[in-house]
Amino acid sequence: MSRAMYCTGDTLITMGHQVDYIFGEYWQLRASVIPKRFTVPLQIPELIYSLAQKGKQYDVVEIHEPLAAPYCFNRKINQNLPPVVLFSHGLEKRNQLAELAYRRQKCLPVSLSLRFLRLTVLQAMYGLQNCDHVICLNSEDNGYLQQIGVDKNRITQVNNGVESQFLLAGEILAPASLSRSGILFLGSWVLRKGTLDLVPAISQVMQHHPSLQFTIAGCGFDADTVLADFAEDIRSRIQIIPKISNNEELIEIYRQHSILVLPSYFEGQPLTMFEAAAMGLAIVTTNICGMADFIENGINGITVSVGDVESLTQSLDHLVENQTLARSLGEAARQKVQAYTWESAGEKIAKAYEKAIQSNKKHLSSKLGLTH
Fold first, then answer.
1. 299: containing domain
2. Which terminus of the chain has fewer Cβ atoms in its 10 Å neighbourhood, N or C?
3. At 17, which CATH number?
4. Contact 239/261 with Cβ under 8 angstroms?
5. Do residue 180 and residue 311 come from a single domain?
6. pLDDT tens-digit map of 268-307
7. How many domains does the chain fold into?
8. By three-state DSSP, how is residue 297 classified?
9. CA angle (195 as vertex; 308, 141 as ends), nearest 5
10. CA distances from 58 to 45, 325, 332, 351, 364 (A)
11. What global pTM score does this model have?
């Protein structure tokens, strides 16, 4: 998420705007026994007040969806606070519903907080209803926002972009794609990323193909922890890379593989998908969220239903056996992703900011009894 914020921020700066990241150099948390995830939302309004007193005035404030409620509440009290744009990288309520459905599908335990009450969801829902504008990343989120009563004129759907480094590396690599093989999973080793389905699927494919290599990168856990989920007879062919430090390292990882697997039950719009597409990998993912907006099944990738281990296994097995098809899907994805630039994303975000500013001006004018 932070990478996306910096990439769009760079674009906005190029367009002539001034952008500050309050989670960076300005952020100073007070000592508290309360977990930071709960104190941060409460401190955002105070931080904006403090910066204003120091002469730092903002035209608009962008806040991540689960953190926006206290700021939106404070704006009702003090309308001199800048208008707020709520940015959702995957709606909290939809994430809750997706996890609940997935756990029931897999007969996993369901906590009371998941079923009835989740503080981040309550904060997010309040923010969505009371912010000046909402930015979301996929058409399913857009539709849900309208379903819960958010005016479509207060919604901007933005696509994530891909950095030029990946596009250039993919262009150079395309003629040599015959030399690539192996399957890559790139992401945190958590339930939401589909690890429960990935383990049996990839295990079966690796049993079918004794020379197949599989990489789990950026997982956030050490090798022993992740490998414990797999049978001993295939562990030697699984490479674990807990952390990735820079784009050069990431590009080298993509370069070594022909297939990306992303079986998440919920996402916003994963950067991994666009980067893999830029590098010409064939993508196997679920038919939901931002993946469904980009992947056309059988044309520039393969999609399967959430939790469908059999289809996931068959799709991966088919691509391993048919590298010509894998290259064809990868090349189609590489061509399509050329249009997904951070410049385009930044322009849409700037327009969303302007809509929030103009909406706030109209609201203040009406409160003062002024006419335009």
1. 164-339
2. C
3. 3.40.50.2000
4. no
5. yes
6. 999 999 999 999 999 999 999 999 999 999 999 999 999 9
7. 2
8. strand
9. 70
10. 13, 51, 42, 16, 17
11. 0.91
